[in-house]
Amino acid sequence: MNSSPTRLLGCAALALLLLAGCATRPPADDPEALQEFRENNDPFEPANRFMFEVNEVIDKAVLQPIAEAYRDLLPKPVRSGIRNVLGNLRTPTILTGDLLQGNVTRARETLGRFIVNSTVGIGGIVDVGRRYDVHGHSEDMGQTFAVWGVGEGFYMFVPLLGPTTARDLTGFAIDVYTNPQSLIGQGQILDVWNYTRIGMTVVDTREALLEPFDMVRKTSLDPYATLRSAYRQRRTFEILNKDGPGGPVAPAGGVGFGQGVLEPQ
């Protein structure tokens, strides 16, 4: 994909369209109203629940079996190496978020990890940085918008992408369009590379969530509400830079789930 003014204008239009529908967020000094807002800011819940059911059908028929086969066919060290590579490839997005938020310390750590892991770690296969207690973290444009004071907007569930909000989906679109790996041009080899990277990210993320998703389906009275709550909790932790150290750095970004553990309600 090539960068163009049309694409940038399209991103801006998408952002304005989505953020225009955001509900008004209560002030921070009213914790009860704020909590109620977070729990109920789902104005399109009937449609979202329908999309969730559609996603469940697709997941059980396609994604889950592929993820299970992926786990069965590849030993854990190989899967870990792939996950490390995918995390290393997200460095441009993470570094951009660090810089746009003015977090020089995290930006320095991100760049240092990328250099070390890309060289000594053989393209990121080995997470050398973690061995020296320099852990990775998640960052994306949705988190940056939140730091800048943009409200999350309404909640939505997008089949294949998963749970998200108006703010985070807009940020996700910008991350995709501004990713250097998507901007370097077109061609058969580049297209194969990008589709492979995207496909492996989906499979890797779904494999990491096999047990958590299974637990939610078996124990939760309302899996839709459980995933909605889990998504918002994860995003809150990421925005506050409280994502735990030592975890893999190949999350889905502003949509769906990363490799965090989902706790059923």
Descriptive notes:
The protein has 265 residues and is mainly alpha-helical. The protein has helices at 5-19, 31-40, 45-73, 76-89, 91-100, 104-119, 128-131, 141-147, 166-178, 180-183, 188-208, 210-219, 223-239; strands at residues 155-158, 162-165. The chain is globular. The relative contact order is 0.15. Mean pLDDT is 83; it is low at 1-6, 15-22, 245-250 and 260-265.
What distinguishing features does this structure have?
disordered C terminus; 265 residues; disordered N terminus; mainly alpha; two-stranded antiparallel ribbon; 2 strands; 13 helices
On the 0-100 scale, what is the average pLDDT?
Answer: 83
Q: Which descriptor suits the 3D outline?
A: globular
Major sheet details? 2 strands, antiparallel
Low-confidence stretches: 1-6, 15-22, 245-250, 260-265
Which strand-content bin applies to the residues? Answer: under 5%
Strand order of the largest sheet: 1-2
Helix coverage percent? 55-70%
Describe the structure in brief.
By secondary structure, the protein is mostly helical. It has helices spanning 5-19, 31-40, 45-73, 76-89, 91-100, 104-119, 128-131, 141-147, 166-178, 180-183, 188-208, 210-219, 223-239; strands at 155-158, 162-165.
List the helices and strands and how they pair.
Layout: H1 5-19, H2 31-40, H3 45-73, H4 76-89, H5 91-100, H6 104-119, H7 128-131, H8 141-147, E1 155-158, E2 162-165, H9 166-178, H10 180-183, H11 188-208, H12 210-219, H13 223-239
Antiparallel strand pairs: 1-2
Helix pairs in contact: 1-9, 3-11, 4-11, 5-6, 8-9
